[in-house]
């Protein structure tokens, strides 16, 4: 719809106040006398969750029928920008058909702890991967004429007491990890809206955080859209508008309007500041309002087929001893686990979708293999071990060549709104897996879970397939992989630890209900495990295939402000397959804490048996940068870097050292606290050392014995008086070196 730019001047104060608060849970305010229609929003990171007009409130499990796509925890494992863009297109088409103007998603917070209850809705522990996939997703949705709300801005990494707790983070960690993905999406996809999160950052509530919502988001990154609150995140509406929040969601009716009108009349809020928020609400409605009328039909069956394809391209083959997979036509199989018939295929809470066409794993298997034996093995409604159910499962396992055992977190164990306190499957499932594997070692465990879990039985089973929450086509996609119709190509977007105690935030996560101290700093996920050389169950970026790939012919060229990387990949196996090549950079130049390596690019390529392809990557300044809080800017240091090419963060296939000299060298300013090792490492200071007489003294000390020399180098210039240097010599040296 087209809105008169002068409309804001026609609004009364009460109407302006109404516009900066939601009319209800899903709509902006209506101004009938000016023919201003409301804009509708809907949850929908993994499928449209539009509320029917007859439904009230959140209605977390009541919505119109829509295709349920795989959750972000799984789609991130695709490492596929093109498929994420296509997912966005399909979500945009569904929203447009249902007259939804803004889709509330994607969620792009990092997976700091595997205990966080909402991890299923987020992409990864890595900010680069998150930012790339989210950018593709947002561009896809918005190219269909539907806006998005990228959430939850920012550092919303736990659920417990999420409305009030403070995420206490140092500036470098905040910029490099927790803001990085948002920055990329804002700059490269220009989202319609950003949704601020419930929590505080360093003691300031995010809905009232001027530095976050205005200084960084708008002034630094150039964001032009609207900032809305998460549902119920506003504690002080006047303070929020001053800070840069534009729309409180949902509104509180007359209470919301009255508090803003009163604030303006009492001069606690200027009308100019209010007009700024109103103008952004009007701009959002103008740009993203859909045509009025009844919902339109769209091809849900085509979207279902895409959901199947995307899930299959994302599922991760974790273990495949003796090539137990794929299942051959002559293999007899048994299916065990209640999740085969009652799959957990989507997250709980605001992302819950009323699925269009659910196909369970057992339905897909039974269609391909009629009369396949099945045993429940456990009950999803209880954790207690049911020995009768286990005995029934063991009986059919003994008769089969191979066992397909479905396991995972029950819905009540992980959800939005609370965090987990452990990473264990229910005891009933763990005991079942061990009992079945004992009588049939050809057991494949198929996991359905929203996030990381522990596997005490990992060495007892032959195969493990991670399907996360695979959407309504969970059954078809799972069987596509198990049967070999699709060669698995998913790669883990998060690390799987061997123990909860090994995780980087173990000592602080949920330790204090009021604050969350990010003491691990930038060492999150693989950045921590690789630096500590700590073994994990499965590393970031890991995933097996039914074929093999060879990496070779690496070339690296340092250009002006960019590095060009090229390599060849060959499919050396007998099946068609896709491989994700991961590019990491190791920084050996900067004298600050650094991860051993960090992901800076990736590419996915499909190859037939024997086929070879060349992949090329261009790495810009940001790939080699770190955020310097002292200068409040990104910094590239001259020196040595390493380009690492891997099939996971721990399986590096190729590498090459490079040297960068992109940053102009600043002259060294010597003072009394400059360390002696710095002085002797700068050849240009030799003449000043000699002329002042200090050089001769230094030479004598450094040639006395190694231990003394080492200790001497680790002293500041002012301490040189302890070895016979006079204050006059020091002063003369300072004059010569700084002249």
UniProtKB/TrEMBL annotation:
Report domain Fibronectin type III-like positions: 579-649
Instruction: Indicate the family of this protein.
Output: Belongs to the glycosyl hydrolase 3 family.
Lyase is among the record's keywords: no
Query: Per its UniProt entry, which superkingdom is the organism in?
Result: Bacteria
Per its record, how is this protein called by name?
Glycosyl hydrolase family 3 protein
Q: Which GO terms describe its biological process?
A: carbohydrate metabolic process
Q: Top-down, what is the taxonomic lineage of the species of origin?
A: Bacteria, Bacillati, Bacillota, Bacilli, Lactobacillales
Coiled-coil features, chain-numbered ranges? none
| Record's keyword terms, sorted | Carbohydrate metabolism, Glycosidase, Hydrolase
Task: Write out the GO MF terms.
Answer: beta-glucosidase activity
């Amino acid at each position: 719809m087209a809105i008169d730019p002068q409309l804001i001047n026609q609004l009364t104060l009460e109407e302006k106040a109404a516009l900066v608060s939601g009319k209800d849970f899903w709509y902006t305010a209506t101004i009938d006398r000016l023919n201003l229609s409301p804009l509708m929003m809907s949850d929908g990171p993994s499928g449209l969750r539009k509320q029917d007009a007859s439904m009230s409130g959140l209605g977390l499990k009541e919505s119109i029928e829509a295709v349920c796509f795989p959750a972000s925890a799984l789609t991130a494992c695709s490492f596929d920008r093109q498929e994420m863009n296509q997912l966005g297109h399909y979500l945009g088409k569904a929203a447009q058909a249902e007259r939804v103007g803004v889709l509330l998603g994607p969620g792009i917070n990092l997976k700091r702890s595997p205990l966080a209850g909402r991890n299923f809705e987020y992409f990864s522990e890595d900010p680069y991967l998150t930012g790339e996939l989210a950018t593709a997703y947002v561009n896809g949705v918005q190219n269909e004429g539907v806006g998005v709300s990228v959430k939850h801005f920012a550092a919303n990494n736990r659920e417990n007491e999420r409305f009030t707790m403070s995420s206490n983070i140092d500036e470098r960690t905040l910029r490099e990890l927790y803001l990085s993905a948002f920055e990329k999406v804002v700059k490269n996809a220009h989202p319609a809206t950003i949704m601020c999160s419930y929590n505080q950052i360093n003691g300031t509530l995010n809905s009232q955080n001027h530095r976050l919502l205005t200084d960084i988001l708008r002034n630094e990154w150039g964001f032009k859209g609207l900032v809305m609150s998460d549902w119920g995140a506003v504690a002080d509406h006047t303070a929020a508008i001053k800070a840069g929040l534009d729309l409180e969601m949902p509104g509180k009716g007359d209470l919301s309007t009255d508090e803003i009108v009163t604030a303006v009349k009492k001069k606690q809020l200027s009308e100019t500041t209010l007009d700024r928020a109103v103008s952004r609400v009007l701009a959002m409605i103008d740009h993203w309002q859909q045509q009025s009328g009844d919902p339109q039909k769209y091809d849900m069956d085509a979207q279902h087929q895409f959901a199947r394809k995307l899930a299959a391209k994302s599922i991760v083959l974790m273990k495949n001893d003796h090539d137990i997979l794929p299942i051959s036509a002559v293999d007899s199989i048994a299916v065990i686990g209640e999740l085969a018939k009652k799959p957990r295929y989507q997250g709980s809470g605001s992302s819950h979708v009323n699925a269009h066409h659910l196909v369970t794993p057992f339905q897909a298997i039974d269609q391909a293999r009629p009369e396949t034996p099945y045993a429940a093995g456990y009950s999803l409604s209880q954790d207690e071990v049911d020995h009768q159910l286990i005995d029934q499962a063991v009986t059919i396992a003994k008769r089969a060549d191979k066992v397909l055992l479905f396991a995972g977190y029950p819905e009540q164990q992980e959800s939005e709104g609370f965090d987990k306190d452990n990473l264990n499957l229910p005891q009933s499932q763990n005991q079942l897996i061990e009992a079945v594997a004992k009588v049939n070692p050809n057991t494949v465990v198929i996991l359905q879970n929203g996030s990381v879990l522990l596997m005490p039985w990992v060495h007892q089973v032959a195969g493990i397939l991670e399907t996360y929450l695979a959407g309504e086509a969970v059954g078809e996609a799972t069987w596509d992989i198990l049967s070999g119709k699709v060669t698995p190509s998913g790669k883990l977007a998060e690390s799987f630890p061997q123990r909860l105690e090994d995780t980087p935030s173990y000592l602080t996560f949920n330790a204090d209900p009021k604050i969350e101290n990010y003491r691990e700093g930038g060492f999150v996920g693989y950045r921590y495990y690789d630096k500590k050389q700590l073994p994990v169950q499965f590393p970031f970026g890991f995933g097996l295939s039914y074929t093999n790939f060879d990496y070779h012919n690496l070339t690296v060229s340092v250009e002006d402000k960019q590095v060009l990387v090229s390599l060849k990949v060959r499919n050396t196996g007998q099946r068609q397959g896709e491989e994700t090549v991961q590019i990491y950079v190791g920084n050996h130049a900067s004298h600050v804490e650094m991860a051993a390596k960090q992901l800076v690019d990736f590419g996915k390529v499909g190859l037939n048996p024997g086929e070879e392809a060349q992949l090329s990557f261009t790495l810009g300044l940001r790939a080699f940068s770190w955020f310097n809080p002292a200068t409040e800017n990104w910094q590239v240091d001259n020196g040595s870097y390493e380009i690492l090419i891997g099939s996971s963060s721990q399986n590096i296939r190729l590498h090459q050292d490079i040297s960068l000299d992109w940053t102009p060298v600043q002259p060294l300013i010597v003072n009394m606290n400059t360390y002696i090792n710095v002085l002797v490492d700068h050849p240009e200071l030799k003449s000043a050392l000699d002329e002042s007489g200090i050089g001769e003294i230094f030479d004598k000390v450094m040639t006395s014995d190694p231990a003394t020399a080492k200790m001497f180098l680790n002293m500041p210039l002012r301490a040189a008086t302890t070895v016979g240097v006079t204050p006059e010599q020091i002063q003369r040296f300072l004059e010569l070196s700084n002249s």
